[in-house]
């Protein structure tokens, strides 16, 4: 488990504390629930999904470049395509 420090406006903290108390849940659990809700919202957003797909493609390209650099340095005969598939030269 990670520890995260955040800064809240006094009014935000007061409202959050009252809501936690009224719902019978700890402040920490209230914050965790809010974060989980936000994660679920973002994860189901098609725009975020498209950005994730683009980032995955970028990561694959960078990994292929690094594999090719290693292959060049160490004289292996396998090189990779941008999707990470190996090809013989």
Automatic annotation (TrEMBL):
State the InterPro entries in the record: Ribbon_hlx_hlx
One of the GO BP terms on file: regulation of DNA-templated transcription
Source organism superkingdom: Bacteria
Q: What is this protein called?
A: Ribbon-helix-helix protein, copG family
- Organism this protein belongs to: Gordonia westfalica
């Amino acid at each position: 488990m990670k520890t995260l420090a955040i800064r809240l406006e006094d009014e935000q903290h007061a409202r959050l504390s009252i809501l936690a108390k009224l719902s019978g849940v700890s402040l920490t659990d209230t914050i965790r629930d809010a974060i989980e809700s936000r994660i679920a919202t973002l994860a189901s957003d098609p725009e975020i999904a498209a950005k994730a797909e683009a980032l995955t493609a970028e990561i694959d390209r960078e990994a292929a470049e690094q594999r090719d650099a290693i292959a060049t340095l160490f004289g292996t005969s396998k090189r990779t395509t941008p999707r990470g598939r190996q090809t013989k030269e």
